[in-house]
């Protein structure tokens, strides 16, 4: 199983695992559709939104069990 890490780009995470979008929305991140998502890592986004990185990574990785990775998404 894949694991989402803090150094992954926000846009790549949402494209590869669409089920994680709910975690971004639940945390009130405005990353969905944001042009900065292709430059910001998950750690950057947590810092910008003043969110605990470990807790958010746990939420993202929990979402992996609910949504399979897309075969043609960036790795």
UniProtKB/TrEMBL annotation:
List the SUPFAM superfamilies hit by this protein, alphabetically. SP0561-like (SSF140683)
Q: Which residues form the DUF1858 domain?
A: 4-56
Return the InterPro entries for the record.
CHP03980_redox-disulphide, DUF1858, ScdA-like_N_sf
Q: Name one Pfam family in it.
A: DUF1858
Name the record gives this protein = DUF1858 domain-containing protein
Which organism is this protein's natural source? Alsobacter sp. KACC 23698
């Amino acid at each position: 199983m894949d694991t989402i890490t803090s150094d992954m780009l926000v846009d790549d995470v949402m494209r590869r695992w669409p089920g994680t979008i709910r975690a971004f929305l639940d945390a009130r991140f405005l990353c969905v559709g944001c042009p900065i998502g292709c430059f910001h890592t998950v750690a950057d986004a947590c810092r910008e939104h003043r969110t605990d990185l470990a807790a958010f990574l746990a939420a993202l990785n929990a979402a992996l069990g609910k949504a399979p990775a897309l075969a043609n998404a960036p790795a």
